[in-house]
Amino acid sequence: MIRKLLLFIISISLFSNVLAQLQVSSMSESELDALDGFIVSEILGCDIELLNVEYGGNPEAIGIFEYIENDNMCQGGFDLDRGLIMTTGSVDIATGPNNSGDDGEAWNIEYQDDFIHNYLVQHQVITNSVSLYDACVLEFDITSPELKSIDFEVIFGSEEYTEWMSPFYADVFCFFVSEINGDIDPNFNSIPQNIMETGNVINSDACNSIENKPISPWTIRPYSEMFGMPGVNECLYVDNPNGEFCNAVGYDGYTIPMHFNLTLQPNATYKIKMIILDGVSNSWAGFDSGVFIKKLDNSDNTSIDYSFSDIEYSDEGATVYFDNLSTSSNGSTYLWDFDGDGYVDSDTVSPSFTFDEPGDHIVTLEVINNCTGETVFVSYVITIDPFVGNDMNLNESDFFTLSIFPNPSNGNFQIQSPVNLNTFSIEIFDVSGRLIVYENMDGYNQNIDISYFEEGVYFCKIKDRFQQVVHSQKIFII
Fold first, then answer.
1. Which one of 137, 170, 345, 376 has the fewest CB atoms closer than 10 angstroms to its CB?
2. Sign of CA dihedral 168, 169, 172, 178
3. 3-class SS at 235?
4. DSSP string of 415-478?
5. How confident is the model over 347-395, as pLDDT tens digits?
């Protein structure tokens, strides 16, 4: 007899859960070597071919961010859960609390690029006398074998808000795209185009009018107190002095999540140049700005499930055949645990397994997305009836079953058994094998307090008076 008793899926983030609402981490020199993997998994998608990745800037100016909802710190959602952060100074300034309105760290490194300088002057972001400093530059080539539409979410924040908004020292972010090695895409050529101008914001329907400008405190701003100038693209702006709107964000102002799109033609090759830099007038570098970028679509998510056959009994035991029903847009690794002990028993896509003991067996399939690193689990309980007509010698303890519930749980577990457990003990281990709980059991029912456990996967073992394991099970704390 087979009974499906539970279905539970866990997604494990690339980042650990933290109390702070916004967490950032810069990249060391060694981590920059692995930047291409992060670009593929978090920014572009796993079915993109990435070539010639180059980074220019201080390692402290680029990193990874994670945002966790916290209504006690924010009046409104930041809405981007994780992705890439690029800044003109240090990524640490992006995080709250926002107890300083003038944070900044100038690296004092001039960046000379006549094309970008002329572009910014033409779009009235800076004046012609302004020099470019403290650039954080990420460049790479991409190609796709199929038509590919990539949607981005972008938030731009700055300490220049609101006192220092000026074309004389304006920070700016650009996402330049050009086609190289051919002329396949009619929308791009060898001249770089900035696809992240305010006129290209997809989710700007609520705005009465949008001026087409590069992203900068001078082009997305409220009323300018310094110059008495009216606001520009003000519907995209969120005011945050002293963290009044969201104290998890360190910038005095930032934009709403702005949606942009990049469509790639099959087999065309594109050069991407993502850059954030500081305009400097009279050798005075202004305060820092930062941009948060993530891929909006979820086409790389993994779905997971499996089915299994009727039990085939024989002298060797009870054989079950498993059919892996999981789907992923990219390559995946499949790991099976047939006996609930937390160890991998098979990495075959659709294996079979012969159980040599009757009772309830938790079978867990773990699927790892080889591109994004996403890990998901699914578990079913398979009940094997007592073997009849074979030569297996079974102890009395082999015939009894017990229940551990609720699973998953966040407070306590109840253990119920049809036999008295006063000579038995329970042990609970974490994923590293460290013993967390050891208790002697008493009677038919027992409550196990796990309210102080951290979220995650644990392994429970019930032992008889001879210290033989009579029941093992994976348990989940949420």
1. 345
2. positive
3. helix
4. EE-SS--TT-EEEEEETT--EEEEEE--SSEEEEE-TTSPSEEEEEEEE-TT--EEEEEEEEE-
5. 999 999 999 888 889 999 998 877 766 788 889 999 888 764 333 343 4
How many residues does the structure list for the chain?
A: 478
Distance CA(390)–CA(61), nearest Å, equals 68
Burial of 457 (0-12, 13-18, 19+ CB in 10 A): middle
Every domain range in the chain assigned CATH 2.60.40.1220: 395-478
Burial of residue 470 (CB within 10 Å: 0-12, 13-18, 19+) is buried
Q: Which residues of the chain have pLDDT under 70?
A: 1-20, 29-30, 77, 101, 105-106, 206, 226-227, 283-285, 297-302, 328-331, 372-373, 387-400
Close Cβ partners of 451 (under 8 Å, ≥ 6 residues apart):
410, 411, 412
DSSP, res 187: T
3-state helix, strand, coil in the chain (%, to 5): 10, 40, 50
The CATH code that applies to domain 300-390 is: 2.60.40.10
For 447, residues 6+ apart whose C-beta sits below 8 A from its C-beta are: 412, 413, 414, 415
Q: Give span(s): CATH 2.60.40.10, the chain.
A: 300-390
- What Å distances lie between residue 344 and 7, 80, 138, 325, 339, CA to CA? 19, 35, 39, 19, 9
Closest Cα partner for 429 from 360, 340, 337, 334? 340
Task: Please state, in angstroms and rounded to a whole number, the distance separating the CA atoms of residues 453 and 163.
Answer: 47
Architecture of domain 395-478: Sandwich (2.60)
Q: How far apart are CA 396 and CA 135, in angstroms?
A: 72
How far apart (Å, rounded) are the C-alpha atoms in residues 299 and 49?
A: 16
Contact 238, 255 (CB under 8 A): yes
Residues 6+ apart with CB under 8 A from 386: 358, 394, 399
Convert the pLDDT of each residue in 95-151 to its tens digit: 988 887 677 766 888 999 999 999 999 999 999 999 999 999 999 999 999 898 999
